[in-house]
Write a structure and sequence with these properties.
The chain has six helices and two strands; from the N terminus they run E-E-H-H-H-H-H-H. It is mainly alpha-helical.
Length: about 180
């Protein structure tokens, strides 16, 4: 998506500018803390309830999210708000997409991330970016269906009910934060 010139300044998805100034930075800091706490909480509960899965995609995924949030925090500290937002949105979307191929396909709890990511992309970046992620998410679900229908997905590792509950509550809580910010 090309940046648009407005008064000599580039605007658009890839422009290095804050969307909403101080409020945008505060929201991103909250999102980073939320992601870091949630991913580390998930990993800790996984290590306690199913230590044999800490070396699988179930255990490595939260560590990827923690690394991504650390990089996003550093970008924020450098004043690169837009880059931090893009990293968070695209990073979470990539995480949910990749892990869903190894974690049950269309039954993966990670696909629950798609709706809030799409809303955040449209709200924090631009409506066209939200539409782009909507189409990409639908395409991933179609591919997951086709691969699953052919029996080509690996068997999903068993996810303890406590972890499934943690992911669902975390997503609901994050949606509550988004709603609070929007209304």
């Amino acid at each position: 998506m090309a940046a648009v010139e407005s008064g000599g300044k580039a605007q658009g998805v890839w422009a290095e500018r804050s969307l909403l100034g101080t409020e945008d930075r505060l929201f991103q800091r909250i999102a980073i803390r939320f992601l870091l706490g949630g991913s580390m909480g998930f990993f800790a509960i996984l290590a306690l309830t199913s230590p044999e899965h800490t070396g699988t995609v179930l255990g490595q995924g939260p560590l990827y999210l923690a690394l991504m949030t650390a990089i996003a925090w550093n970008l924020l500290r450098q004043g690169k708000d837009r880059a931090a937002g893009l990293l968070l949105i695209l990073g979470i979307w990539a995480y949910a997409t990749i892990v869903s191929f190894f974690d049950g396909g269309l039954s993966s709890v990670n696909l629950y991330f798609y709706p809030p990511i799409i809303v955040l992309a449209a709200w924090r970046l631009c409506i066209r970016f939200g539409h782009l992620l909507t189409g990409a998410s639908a395409a991933v679900c179609i591919v997951l269906y086709l691969v699953e229908a052919k029996g080509m997905l690996p068997a999903a590792p068993p996810l303890p009910p406590l972890l499934r509950l943690l992911v669902e509550i975390a997503i609901f809580a994050f949606c509550g934060i988004v709603v609070r910010a929007l209304v």
